Model the fold of this input.
Amino acid sequence: MTSKALFMKYTKTAVLLFSAAVILSSCEKVVTIDLHQVNPRLVVEGIVSDQPGPYTVKLSRTGNYFVPSLVFPPVSGARVVIKDNLGNRDTLRETVTGNYETTSLQGAVGRTYSLDVIADGNEYTATSSISKKVAIDSLYALPRQTSRGEPGYDIWVMFRDPPELGNYYRLNVHVDSLVSQDSIDGRRYRLYSDKLTNGNEITERVRAGRLVVSGDSVTVDLMSIDKAMYDYFSTLNDVLSSDRAATSLSPANPNTNLDGGALGYFAAWTTDRRTIILH
Done:
């Protein structure tokens, strides 16, 4: 689920809860409800990494309650600039409607990157820093049986947190054959902070079920992210992990590092990637 879809979800929830409250309290008189249209908001999805470019910034807009849709219009004709703290500057070119690519910028560990977007006369900014790269120490898989007796695998990933406090990670584990899924087991955001495990070896077990079979390629990405991105994905994960009941959702969006009223994120991180073949 994207930031755009989440925004639509929260908006509809707020309207439904408000409508329900009015109905319950209006047994003896007619109440006219003035539902104001929610103005579409800019959604930014941009990443700079230590991997070779070009890097892409995607711009689109949310929908509104009165025009529900799963298609969110891309934003064309914007001015998008990324620069680093050493003075390097790159004006992105629009290669596909709503997609803006760098032409010369290269991500590097230790640098801070700033994004500046001007769209429809409004300016949006964000900054993010590329943290020290942490490598995967070990990756292996062991066959197992699921609770229903079906075949499956346990995927084990291990990496060591540096001795310095203040490191944050996102781990993504996926199988090449499952092109319709975001991860090997449907869990999108595995996030780690070294607040309680500083300097320790971190081990993650991923339980893969019957959709993963011998011969599949399992790819693991370990991203070293900054605190702003950790907070964004943490709050997004909280929303996605809710029970989806209307009464359990609050009309709020995940934390963002974007200024100017936009949704989404601008991230700078390192990636260590490992792949194994299941046997």
Remarks:
- The helical segments are 3-24, 227-240.
- The first strand starts at residue 42 and ends at 49.
- The chain has two domains: 3-132+227-270, 136-223.
